[in-house]
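ok new one. same drill as before - structure tokens go in, u give me an amino acid for every spot. 200 of them this time. try not to just spam alanines like last time pls lmao
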């Protein structure tokens, strides 16, 4: 059985879907939900589901990312995870941290990578006149929002979409994609998951 730690910064809707998926014959179980924000809504949602939680507040480490990551890493080691899932974890990680978890760390990003790395993905996709949007799960490497693709879900962009409406459609697709990728990844299968019109 693989041990999974989930890192988040916000409400944790993806975390909830991941945790709920890890039952029965699933090859993994959640062992820790960890946040850089002690007030993150995802921490209480994890605790309600019986998953151990921890927070390492990044703010006292301002200007010293490495020191923050040392504490994060130490806290993770206590939970001895085999796999890390970044699920709305909004801190940039240094190459030093990523190296330690390389091949064992997944991230979900709300765009069809390699398009729209970084922030404000939905507004940028709409501004570019895209007819299709979606989300990507990839292994984390030292390059921001890059690394081997492990899954992608596509949704249509519809007439009249605002960034908020599109974000909600993509988030629904994220909730299908991430659990599907984690199940495969935890079983040692690196074949990318493809979901077309996942929420359409
Ligand atoms: C998700 O849309 C995720 O793709 C995005 O943050 C949201 C977290 O929502 N991640 C990034 O933008 C990473 N660069 P959640 O807390 O409800 O899962």
């Amino acid at each position: 059985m693989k041990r999974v730690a989930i890192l988040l910064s916000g409400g944790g809707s993806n975390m909830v879907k991941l945790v709920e998926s890890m039952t029965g014959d699933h090859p993994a179980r959640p062992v820790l939900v960890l946040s850089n924000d002690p007030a993150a809504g995802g921490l209480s949602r994890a605790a309600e589901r019986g998953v151990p939680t921890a927070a390492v507040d990044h703010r006292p480490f301002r200007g010293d990312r490495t020191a923050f990551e040392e504490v994060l890493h130490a806290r993770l080691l206590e939970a001895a995870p085999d796999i890390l899932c970044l699920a709305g974890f909004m801190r940039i990680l240094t190459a030093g941290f990523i190296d330690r978890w390389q091949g064992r760390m997944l991230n979900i990003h709300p765009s069809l990578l390699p398009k729209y790395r970084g922030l404000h993905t939905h507004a940028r996709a709409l501004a570019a006149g895209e007819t299709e949007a979606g989300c990507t799960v990839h292994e984390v490497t030292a390059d921001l929002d890059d690394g081997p693709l492990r899954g992608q879900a596509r949704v249509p962009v519809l007439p009249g979409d605002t960034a908020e409406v599109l974000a909600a459609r993509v988030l629904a697709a994220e909730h299908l994609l991430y659990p599907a990728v984690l199940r495969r990844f935890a079983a040692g299968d690196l074949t990318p998951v493809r979901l077309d019109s996942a929420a359409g």
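The first strand starts at residue 2 and ends at 8. and btw Residues 1-101 form a domain with the Rossmann fold fold (CATH 3.40.50.170).
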